[in-house]
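Hello Y.,

Per our agreement to keep a running log of every chain we model this quarter, I'm adding this entry. I've kept the format consistent with earlier entries: sequence first, then predicted structure.
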Amino acid sequence: MAQKSPIHIVRLDAIHCPDPIFSSSLNHTLTSHLNTPPNDETIIKHLTTPKPANVAITTRIPITEKVLAACPDLKLVAAMAIGIDMIDLAACKKYGVQVCNVPAASNESVAEHAIALFFSLRRQVVRMHGLTVTGAIWPERMSLKDEWGELPGTCREEVVGVFGGGELGGRVANICKALNMKVQFSERKSVSASEVREGRVSFDECIKTSTAFFLTLPLSPETLNMISTEELTNMRSDALIVNVARGGIVNEEALVEALKSRKILGAATDVYVEEPAGLKNSPLVRAANEWSKDTSMSGRLVLSPHLAWWAKSSIQKLRTTVASNIEAWAGGEIKNEVL
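Predicted structure for the entry above:
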């Protein structure tokens, strides 16, 4: 839209990051809510009172069809993130609402966090920490090597399977290659073995041959529960899974069962089906909490609270890009358009 009068911008969840850095030339008003309970009624209230929003900024607060129907003045949803799975794109199209995001918002820090999670699993950092800080077990036994289990390999023996061939997957792959790991990019699950693209391996081959998996792909109807009981059963017994993509790509209940039955060696995640994740709503949190008291399971499931993105470079890019997206839209252009 070409701006004629002040646009009203509503920020729904400022708890994650400081507000965008707008140019002084943008004629606007801004209401910034630290957080918004993720129910339609409260979201609608925040977007309509004390005055209707023209632009909504969201990081994780859902924008549903009910919200859009109740907010006729809303014309742009600006995701302060790369992920847009919390926005009903079909409904946005129906109501003529444009959507933009921040491409590669935090890929640098997320890739590094993914590698940190990998090493926390492969080198049993969490478990060894727990055994060491008791202050008694190591002095009593003189060595804790027998607590390790099978003698671990090093990076040159890893076969890394990357699900997601975008910039984030590429960053993870480059770090792995620099550490002398073999890297293979998986083809989409729906693609037959005879139609695999150059530079990729079939989904089934990747599942069966990789020693470590990195998930760096968006959540979509195609990727929902992409890895579940069948895939976990077909993995190597020494396999590790690292998810820095979105909750729901790996079936959480199936993952807990695979770890319990030792079908795979370990898993780490920064993302969950329901967030914030806690004992009441997350099978992963419940399992990790229970296993923290069991030395045979401790450290085999490593969790972080969706903060892989948290870094100076990420914050700067989020603040400047969202501002640029909104300013371009106000001037009749659209940047980083999703819809």
